[in-house]
Write a structure and sequence with these properties.
The protein has 179 residues and is mainly alpha-helical. The chain has a two-stranded antiparallel ribbon. α2 runs parallel beside α4, α4 runs parallel beside α6 and α5 packs parallel to α7.
Length: 179
Amino acid sequence: MFLSDYLDYTLKKLKANMANILTMTNLSLGGFSVLTTLKGQLHMSVLLVFLAAFVDRFDGAVARKMNIESELGKQLDSMSDIVSFGVAPALLMYEALFYEFGAPGAVFTILYIACGAFRLARFNITENNGYFSGLPITAAGVLMTLGYLAIPYFPPQSFMFLALILSFLMVGTFKLKKI
């Protein structure tokens, strides 16, 4: 009887925290992306950001479907997103290319991260009305990471422009319908 009760309790706890488990998986993948970038394994870093985006796609949906949305989950998701789609892609591009530009490369890297953080903070304090205000950081992070794959095909300065455009799009006030 004791084992059955314990198993039932454990399954209820897992269900109640499933969205947060997915969010922590997103954060872990973003953290590993940062670490692999620091070790010079840039292709692995790209893969980890894409995996984080895949997992991030489901955490909110799971929370809504299982009716387990919480303020903690919303804040945790933003903290995870700044690592996986702010710091990880910015560091990837810095290590791959931006460092060659010296101080301007560092400024564009930090600007991208700062705009992503601002966008997430604004999202957390506004009403959820079915629209995003500005480009979601997940989309910006995936686009920045895709930029890494395009480095051989475009001039280096175009990626600085990409970082600038993505930064401004994240803090923009235009509306995008949630999908």
